[in-house]
Fold:
Amino acid sequence: MKVITKIAEMQKEADQLRIQEKKISLVPTMGYLHEGHLSLVREARARSDVVVMSIFVNPSQFGPSEDFKDYPRDFNHDVELARSAGCDIIFYPDAQEVYPEPYLTYVEVERLTKVLCGVSRPTHFRGVTTIVAKLFNIVKPQLAVFGQKDAQQAIVIKRMVKDLNYDIEIIVAPIIREKDGLAMSSRNTYLTKAQRIQATVLYQSLMVAKKMIDAGERKATIIKKRMRDLIEQQPDAIVDYIEIVDTTTLESQTALNGEVLIALAVKVGKPRLIDNIIVRVLERTINTESLK
Ligand code: AMP
Structure:
């Protein structure tokens, strides 16, 4: 496995791989790797010849009062984990080279970035789309793998790829969870022992929502209220949002029908945690047999 830190060197490597007709895949991450990230590498491994993982804590996607400085980092450990998962190249650039002064160009996806996480993080997605666009130009992949954990991010990236005509296939891989259901996240390390237990309520509330839908509930307000009540029983949990939205437009749903994304963000002590599930809402059919 190679580690490349310079942009020009990565571009040259990508050009050479392309001449050899190798299929390049990209797995963008901010490092402090866990099983969730490694599952993306394995997905990329199965679908391409050369897997490039980028590790870059991207300053432009953090708000001024967010955790950019504290964000956990352990590059040496990441190298070992990436190697064990079958990564071929780690691209580990320097922030100064990625954003040289003066830096003036950003990529912005409209509308989809204004809802859900975009409400409390108004500049977050502009940072994400900008770095991902830059990584696409540097790594030159034919395929990129993202996690369903960041459901809104995946939808925004797919939109950017379509709107800017990137010739790149986007794969969205399932959420990897701890045994008790908590979605794996680098930010889980911020949780105290007591908060770690409380944090399981995110997934529990999503499961309650699914059960309610399976039992026939179709009113979003009733489901969201039950979720909120459950989460707010935890002393350190502060709900940022609980939403039930269309899986492509991210428009809020009131009477549930078809495929919906149930997404939430909750602060549990220091970290703001996100999670989601997709539920297929079946049309309620009257059992005519029983009426005969
Ligand atoms: P991050 O390093 O948190 O920016 O995440 C990098 C990529 O890994 C993103 O595409 C995330 O959606 C994905 N990811 C993070 N956590 C998980 C998880 N628990 N399961 C699956 N993918 C994940």
User: Anything to note?
Assistant: The longest strand covers residues 258-268.
